[in-house]
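Appendix C reproduces, verbatim, an entry submitted by the partner laboratory led by Prof. M.T., so that reviewers can inspect both the input and the predicted structure.
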Amino acid sequence: MGFKCGIVGLPNVGKSTLFNALTRTAAAVAENYPFCTIEPNVGQVPVPDPRMQRIAAIAKPKKIVPTLLAFVDIAGLVRGASKGEGLGNQFLGNIREVDAILHVLRCFQDDDVTHVDGRIDPVGDAETVDTELMLSDLESLERRIHTATKRQRGGDKEATAQLDLMGRIVEALQDGRPARDVEITANEAKDFQQLQLLTGKPVLYVCNVDEASAGTGNEYSRRVEEMAAKQNAAMVVISADIEAELAQLDDGEEKDAFLEDLGLSEAGLDRVIRAGYELLGLLTYFTAGPQEVRAWTIPDGTLAPAAAGVIHGDFERGFIRAETIAYEDFLSCNGEQGARDAGRMRSEGRDYRVKDGDLMLFRFNV
């Protein structure tokens, strides 16, 4: 089960620098001109989770396997992309394939780095990208409405419900609001998902600031914070240049010293990765044994059989039960046997909704 966050924004805002730091690779060429990233680059990134080390200290496995999140570096958008300007069609198509959007905004002054519009205005940049995505969604919905209307005339009841949903979304888009702002019912969720709307995807604003502002932000990032609050969206502040320097350091103590010198408590990338994980509505459960401690990614709300299926399809098909220990119980009881002896290991059935941090052992028969 793969989850992808697409890194988007105008040209020269720091997308590829951020991607390179995230994936610790130079696969995406960070150059000072538009469209240097022609094809989307994809990198798998481990999700930082200190719980794994604490579990491993008790289980003493041969290896630790973290859960991964994919980041896609997508070519920069320019005004008119919805009409094919720049790399418009390719850009919009690449966004359509990701699960969530990390929108990088330039929040720094640097005369040596050009801006496609010749000014520093992160809120205006966000509006430029949002407008292009909304225009693309409107065009897509117009085609779908035309098809659904024909089906409705033929007596298709599902088409009537779909037209009602699409009509509400069109109204929001014409009002300058993204599709994700539209309230949908549980029955409409599947139809909404199938529309594959660009503005229906969750968004995290990433403010790329200068090194001096990495810990506190600046006037530009504070304007983005106000915008995000109005949209009920998330935002993080990082310095892509700092993260690029950190990515070149292999020694953990050296990294800690580097961050301490800058007055930072943790790498900005860790915040970005965690925020992206939360943005997708994901949670982590663990398996622990002498061979390995491993983290597994599932959407919040996943039931035990489907969670087992992430490991192997046979686990889901032949699911019997899930022997489950809460993370805190695993620590306080000093492991699986202690939790079992203390009555803190539970036998959960098919209707159990997996919780973040659960340690699980699946029983199955095929």
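The radius of gyration is 23 Å. Additional entries are available on request from the coordinating office.
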